[in-house]
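Hi support team,

I've been running sequence recovery on a batch of backbones for a student project. Most finish fine, but this one hangs at about 90% for roughly twenty minutes before it completes. I'm not sure whether the input is malformed or the queue is just slow. I've pasted the structure tokens below so you can try to reproduce it. Let me know if you need the job ID as well.

Thanks,
M.K.
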């Protein structure tokens, strides 16, 4: 595949910003990505979300590929490259603990999200606030067979986060708390990061790290920034991301993608 390089884009806080009610990419962002592709660059999404939670507005961008679930899933040109899932025996132990501690949770798979009670107030609030599709959720699943990559805990309680970390920190899990986003926290296998997905795609596409760019704003973008030469932090970025950024741009509302790509000389 002949190309000049590749640009990876985070979703939340980068292409969109649901905390500011920007639920779809702006016209300037869309036009910038079209120009980017016309100029010979591949465009890849890199998101913590599973494939089923990628909004229509993002899919309509016509990107070349997707890295989802913090690097546990990847596809390019509609071909699935890998789909890593949690071991079901380990998952059952974890879920039993969450239930014992009254931590409400949602399991993320690529086709569906799995919950115990879709009418639970915290689950309903999550679906509403993040603009997720209710039809992508199901209560019909079993701990012994369900295939998922990540768990979202919606306990809205920092104490719950500490309890889960203390119990499972030595079992290969990683944890990410989003206190500013309502107290949600994520649980996933530490080996699977956006960087893991980026490294695999760069190798597959035979693209040098020197020709790889990434836009992101979150703590889970650190590994992605480490896997490319040019990591560009969006306005409002997480403080832990700053040391890994090559440069900085503005927030979604101030057309950070367009301004960042122009500054890099890519469009």
């Amino acid at each position: 595949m002949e190309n000049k390089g590749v640009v990876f884009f985070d979703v939340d806080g980068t292409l969109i910003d649901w905390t500011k009610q920007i639920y779809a990419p702006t016209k300037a962002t869309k036009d910038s990505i079209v120009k980017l592709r016309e100029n010979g660059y591949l465009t890849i999404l890199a998101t913590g979300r599973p494939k089923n939670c990628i909004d229509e507005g993002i899919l309509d961008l016509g990107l070349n590929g997707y890295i989802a679930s913090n690097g546990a899933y990847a596809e390019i040109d509609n071909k699935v490259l890998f789909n890593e899932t949690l071991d079901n025996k380990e998952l059952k132990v974890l879920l039993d603990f969450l239930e014992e501690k009254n931590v409400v949770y949602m399991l993320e798979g690529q086709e569906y999200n799995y919950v115990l009670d879709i009418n639970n107030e915290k689950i309903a609030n999550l679906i509403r606030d993040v603009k997720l599709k209710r039809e992508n959720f199901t209560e019909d699943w079993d701990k012994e067979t369900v295939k998922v990559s990540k768990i979202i805990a919606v306990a809205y309680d920092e104490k719950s986060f500490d309890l889960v970390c203390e119990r499972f920190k030595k079992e290969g899990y990683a944890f990410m708390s989003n206190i500013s986003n309502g107290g949600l926290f994520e649980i996933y296998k530490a080996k699977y990061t956006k960087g893991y997905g980026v490294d695999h795609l760069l190798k597959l596409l035979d693209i040098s790290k020197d020709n790889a760019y990434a836009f992101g704003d979150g703590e889970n973008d650190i590994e992605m920034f480490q896997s490319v030469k040019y990591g560009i932090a969006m306005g409002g970025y997480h403080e832990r991301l700053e040391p890994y950024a090559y440069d900085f741009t503005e927030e979604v509302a101030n057309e950070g993608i367009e301004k960042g790509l122009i500054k890099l000389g890519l469009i």
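--
Follow-up from support: It reproduced on our side and the slowdown came from queue contention, not your input. The mean pLDDT is 93. No action needed from you.
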